[in-house]
Amino acid sequence: MASWWASKARQSLTHLRASVAPGERAGLADWLTPAQRTMFEAMHVADQRHGLDVVAALRARDVDDPEILVAGLLHDAGKGATGIAPRIVYALGQRYGQWAWRTASVVPGFRVALRRLEQHAGTSAALAAAAGCSRRTVELIRRQDDPPASEASRLLHLADESS
Q1: What's the alpha-carbon Rg for the chain, to the nearest Å?
Q2: Quick one: which of 4, 5, 11, 8 has its CA closest to 46?
Q3: Which among 33, 110, 106, 116 has a CA at the least distance from the CA of 77?
Q4: pLDDT tens digits, residue range 102-135?
Q5: Number of H helices and number of E strands within the chain?
Q6: CA torsion sign, 34 to 38 to 65 to 55?
Q7: Is the pTM of this model over 0.70?
Q8: What are the backbone dihedrals phi and psi of residue 33, each rounded to the nearest 5 degrees, phi first?
Q9: How far apart are the first and last CA of the chain?
Q10: So what CATH class is 2-162?
Q11: What distances in angstroms separate CA 161 from CA 23, 36, 156, one per listed residue?
Q12: Taking Cα atoms as reference points, which of 83, 66, 153 lies closest to residue 117?
C-alpha cells in the first residue's frame, strides 16, 4: 500500500510540474500528422508530458512502430482539462471504492470530471479516429485499460505504468 501512495504522490508532483520544451513540440512534426499535432496541443500539459514520457519509455524498449508510439502519445487526450483534484479523487475511488467518487460528486464540477476520467479511453479513441489515426492505434487507445491482449498492448501498458 505504501508503494501505491508513493506512486500517486509522484504522479501528483509530476502533474503539477509538467512542462513540454519547445524542442519536444517541434520534434513532433517529424512523426505526427497536422491533425494529430492539433490533438496533442489540445491536451492538458500534464497529459502531454505523460504522453511524451510514455513514448520515451517505449523507445527505450526499442519500440519503433509508429502506431504504438502515436497511441502512447495520445492515449490520455480524452481527459481534457481535468485538474489535479478530480484526478486524485478518481485514483482514490479506483483504489478504495466508488464511495469516494459519490462523496466528491457533490463538489461542483467533480461529477463531470470524474465521468470524463472514467470514460477517457473511449473518448481518446474517438478523438484519435477523428484525427486520422490508424484503426490499430485507435484500438490500442480504446483498450488501454483492458488486460493486454497483444504484444503491442502489453508494451503500451508497461510504458504507461512506468511513466
Answers
A1: 16
A2: 11
A3: 116
A4: 888 888 889 999 999 999 999 999 999 999 999 9
A5: 11, 0
A6: positive
A7: yes
A8: -75, 165
A9: 19
A10: mainly alpha
A11: 25, 23, 9
A12: 83
